[in-house]
Amino acid sequence: MTPDELKSLVRAIPDFPKPGIQFRDVTTLLADPAGLKAVIDGLAAIARPVDADLVVGIEARGFILGAALAVALGTGFVPVRKAGKLPGKTVGIDYVLEYGTDRLEIHAGQVPVGARAILVDDLIATGGTALAAAQLLREQGAAVEMALFAIDLPELGGMNALKADGVAASALMDFAGH
Fold first, then answer.
1. Of 48, 59, 98, 105, catalytic
2. Across 77-81, average pLDDT
3. N or C: which end of the chain has fewer CB within 10 A?
4. Is 61 a catalytic residue?
């Protein structure tokens, strides 16, 4: 599928979660068998040369894409969750949002020192969550080799923020506006 064909499968929901936001809903893309396969195939083609040990998916839609990508690449999968969602001992990182703070966590010891990781999420906007996830992985001794997204909202600068932080980043499609 071409990027334009993929884009046609992404539903736009105006004024969600607040007025002025054009929410890009990937659930319609995920429900389309050819679209889902094209996204995973496209992400895998970009990721394969990295020869990663782990794919790390960011909650929540990053779990869907990340787990499928891990299967395609023959790697393990690690979920990065919001605080309080994982059982057992966790390690985490607090980070700043537009209106407050949040926390991301992974299971303690789940990311081996020296692991080569690929971060995955459905969409990148400002990059705050992806940057926090990359820092959390680095604090565990992992190398964050790449961050992959189905969608980029380039006007919000997230890809540039990741690249400035030393993380190669790529998306299969982009949408103007936010």
1. 98
2. 98
3. C
4. yes
98 classed as catalytic: yes
Residue 42 falls inside a structural domain: no
Please answer whether residues 55 and 73 qualify as being in contact, where contact means their C-beta atoms are separated by less than 8 angstroms: yes
Q: For residues 121 and 101, what is the distance between their CA atoms, to the nearest angstrom?
A: 20
pLDDT tens for residues 115-168? 999 999 999 999 999 999 999 999 999 999 999 999 999 999 999 999 999 999
Domain range for residue 158? 50-174
Q: What CATH code is carried by the domain that includes residue 143? A: 3.40.50.2020
- Residue 58 in 3-state DSSP? strand
Q: How far apart are CA 40 and CA 37, in angstroms?
A: 5
Catalytic residue, candidates 61, 81, 105, 145: 61
pLDDT attached to residue 34: 98
Number of domains in the chain: 1
